[in-house]
Amino acid sequence: MVYNIEKKCKNSKSLPRKRKIILNQLLNMVKEITILGCKKTEVIMELILEEVVDKVWLNHTRKDFFDIEKKIAELNKKQPALANYLMTVNSELYNFEEKQLLLYLAVAVWDCMQQGEKDIPKINASDISKASEKNMKLISYLEGKLDHDFQNAVESVFSEYHQTYVLDLIRKVVFSTDDQKTQIRSKNKGLILFDLKTFLDCLDN
Question: 34-50 pLDDT, tens per residue?
Answer without folding.
Answer: 344 444 444 468 999 99
